[in-house]
Amino acid sequence: MSHVNNLESQHNDPAFANIWQELKWRGLVHVSTDETELEKLLAGDPITYYCGFDPTAPSLHLGNLVQLLVMRRLQLAGHKPLGLVGGSTGLIGDPRPTAERTLNTKDTVAEWVGYLQGQVRRFLSFEGENSARMVNNLDWTAPLSAIDFLREIGKHFRVGTMLRKDAVASRLSSDEGISYTEFSYQILQGMDYLQLFRDYGCALQTGGSDQWGNLTSGTELIRKVEGKSVHAMGTPLITNSDGTKFGKSEGNAIWLDPEMCSPYTFYQFWLNTADADVVDRLKVFTFLSRAEIETLGQAVAERPFAREGQKKLAFEVTSLVHGVDATEKVIAASAALFGNGDLTVLDERTLEAATAELPSATISAEGLGIIDLLVASGLSDSKSAARRTVGEGGAYVNNTKVSDPDAVIAQDELLHGRYLLLRRGKKNLATIEVSA
Question: GO CC terms for this protein (predicted)?
Fold first, then answer.
């Protein structure tokens, strides 16, 4: 994937005394090691920090995007990021609260490592004095024998402490229990931090607060083995104001890969943000300044019907992930669906994504009479109802009004040679695919 997002245009808000104060204001600090020390560290000379991403799927999702943007903000403050994609930890998977993960094959995990590295690269700068570096924990885990692992790393972990970690404790009390494989995950993550401390002087690990047990296994290991103090920071898990889980749409995760979640679907997800959540989302997911976000917050409070906050949020985040060109195509598609734009300029993929949720029907090329189309699409219950719709001026094909009930749509009017967008009145839409 290309560098679709414009890294040059991103900057932290100079209105804050330091990056720690900005992270706090954006609601990105839920838990951390010594806050005073960490603020001092981040306000001083450049440090090296890391965040890890496990290839348990072929794409990152919105929860990972939070971490990528924290990494980018720290890089903009002058610090040096290490993006770790877990070729070894991805073979095991961190313990989920409910059940064991399905283990993927080594070939699958290796393939996904490549995909995720490509995604991480798009959000960090790999140029300049504080350029980012990619690391893979398989590089230092694979050569280690089981005996060496137990002697050199395992002896520093106390089982009692490991049992108290949230992810482990919740699984122990479940019917499923926990395998030794997943139980040992925190040791592997602790070893990663130790390795990066030794190789790069890494002094901070960031991650979600649900990873806190794994984050602190690394700080503890470094303290025991090296006698040094390093830091960890956990971001809050983002939830919607109504208590529902953030980042899910119709039961599906919102992925960053356009093949798994189209830019149109991605944009619509942000556009549908509740008024109560808009300001928080703008803080976490955009590089807009505090002043800009406060202005948008005021607009949401005073003119919620205008949805200014949601439109800005959707534009900013979709541009960040998919690029400005793709975002502008999506906005054009949204307008064109409801008659405010030219459907013929939409590429096929954008058109398909924009109409994916609409009622649809497939018919043969012989059945392109307007009455048959309205009935086949379900926009009219019967031929008589369809005739009434046409007679009242409420029937549209590809945004063009059809006034003749005997009209037959010509083949050259098909979008991309096979689609028609039907509309009854202002808001009732359906698609027809014409079979060859």
Answer: cytosol
Quickly count helices (H) and strands (E) in the chain: 19, 13
Q: How many Å apart are CA 140 and CA 159, to the nearest integer?
A: 24
> How many other CB atoms are found less than 10 A from the CB of residue 245?
10
pLDDT attached to residue 91: 92
State yes or no: 189 annotated in a binding site.
yes
Fill in the DSSP letter of residue 381.
S
Residues of the chain with pLDDT under 50: 1-3
pLDDT 10s digits, 115-142: 999 999 999 999 999 999 999 999 999 9
The answer to whether residues 74 and 94 touch, using CB atoms and an 8 Å cutoff, is: no
50 is in an annotated binding site: yes
Which tokens hold the place of 23?
Answer: 């992270």
- Pairwise CA distance, residues 110 & 57, whole Å: 11
Q: Tell me the angle at which helices 263-271 and 348-355 cross, rounded to the nearest 10 degrees.
A: 40
Beta strands in 86-239 (DSSP E): 133-135, 204-208, 231-235
Q: Which amino acid is at 80?
A: K
Which of 130, 138, 139, 133 has the alpha carbon at shortest distance from 82?
133
d(CA 211, CA 52): 11
Q: In what order do the strands lie in the sheet with 395-397?
A: 360-364, 428-435, 419-424, 395-397, 400-401
pTM (two decimals): 0.90
Residues with Cβ within 8 Å of 132's Cβ and at least 6 positions away in sequence, in order, are 71, 75, 80, 81, 82, 83, 121, 124, 125, 126
Q: What is d(CA 169, CA 177) in angstroms, rounded to the nearest whole number? A: 9
At 128 the pLDDT is 93
All structural domains of the chain, each given as residue ranges with its CATH number in brackets, are: 7-235 (3.40.50.620), 248-341 (1.10.240.10), 360-435 (3.10.290.10)
pLDDT score for 165: 86
200 annotated as belonging to a binding site for a ligand? no
Closest to 345 (Cα-Cα) out of 330, 361, 324: 330
Contact (Cβ atoms closer than 8 angstroms) between residue 78 and residue 130:
yes
pLDDT recorded at residue 251: 67
Tokens of 355: 């109409």
**DSSP structure class, residue 84:** E
The two three-digit tokens of residue 99, written as one number: 């059940």
119 marked ligand binding residue: no
